[in-house]
């Protein structure tokens, strides 16, 4: 299959899906500093009144908080790329470690299905006869619906091209 930017592969739709993170790296450091400072002050107070085991548990608490926040920030490096071309649809997933996984699907019988589950964010499934592939797992409800509508419209345009025949015009 040609590369998506080559002339042989006419790219009809492209979506880059990344997890939403509200903190910048500077904001993340500020948050970690605030957590460390507040827990440190609490641990110091308990140390001064003679309850030194609380200080030891506070060190473990700060370490656990920093590790969990680091895991969350690290997961922001993951991404998903959905490319629709005349040749088919490609889904390229990159995990937080940088490993890539690619899946190629034919668009012949492919449908975009939004699966609704009460009380949960809907799922976007690319479904064909023997294929079910979920995309956009990190998106919220509104972005998922927008992605499903845009991808459905792009699939429709790919299957039903409009030809401009100058001989048929008046």
Work out the helicity level: 25-40%
Uncertain residue ranges: none
CATH level-two architecture of the largest domain: Roll
**CATH topology descriptor of the largest domain:** PH-domain like
Distance N terminus to C terminus?
Answer: 40 Å
Compute the number of strand runs: 7
Q: What order do the SSEs take from the amino end to the carboxyl end, as H and E?
A: EHHEEEEEEH
Principal-axis shape: elongated
The helix-and-strand class reads alpha+beta
Largest sheet: 4 strands, antiparallel
Radius of gyration: 24 Å
Q: Averaged pLDDT, please?
A: 87
Strand content: 15-25%
What number of structural domains do the residues give?
A: 2
Give an overview of the whole structure.
With 170 residues, the protein is an alpha+beta fold. The protein has 2 domains: 11-18 and 78-159, Roll (PH-domain like), CATH 2.30.29; 25-75. It is 39% helix and 24% strand. It is built from 3 helices and 7 strands. It has helices spanning 25-48, 52-75, 141-159, and strands at residues 11-17, 79-85, 88-94, 100-105, 111-115, 123-127, 132-135. The strands form 2 sheets. The protein has a 4-stranded antiparallel beta sheet with strand order 1-2-3-4, with helices on one face. Helix 1 runs antiparallel to helix 2 (52-75). The longest helix has 24 residues, at 25-48. The chain is elongated and about 95 Å long. 10% of the residues are buried.
């Amino acid at each position: 299959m040609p590369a998506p930017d080559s002339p042989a592969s006419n790219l009809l739709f492209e979506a880059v899906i990344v997890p939403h993170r509200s903190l910048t790296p500077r904001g993340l450091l500020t948050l970690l500093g605030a957590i460390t400072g507040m827990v440190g002050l609490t641990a110091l107070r308990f140390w001064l009144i003679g309850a030194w085991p609380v200080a030891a548990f506070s060190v473990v608490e700060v370490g656990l908080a920093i590790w969990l926040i680091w895991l969350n920030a690290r997961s922001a490096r993951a991404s998903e790329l959905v490319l629709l071309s005349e040749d088919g649809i490609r889904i390229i997933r990159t995990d937080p470690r940088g490993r890539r996984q690619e899946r190629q699907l034919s668009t012949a019988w492919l449908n975009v299905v939004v699966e609704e589950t009460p009380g949960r964010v809907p799922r976007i499934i690319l479904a064909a006869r023997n294929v079910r592939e979920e995309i956009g797992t990190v998106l919220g409800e509104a972005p998922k619906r927008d992605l499903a509508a845009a991808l459905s419209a792009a699939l429709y345009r790919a299957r039903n091209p409009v030809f401009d025949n100058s001989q048929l015009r008046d």
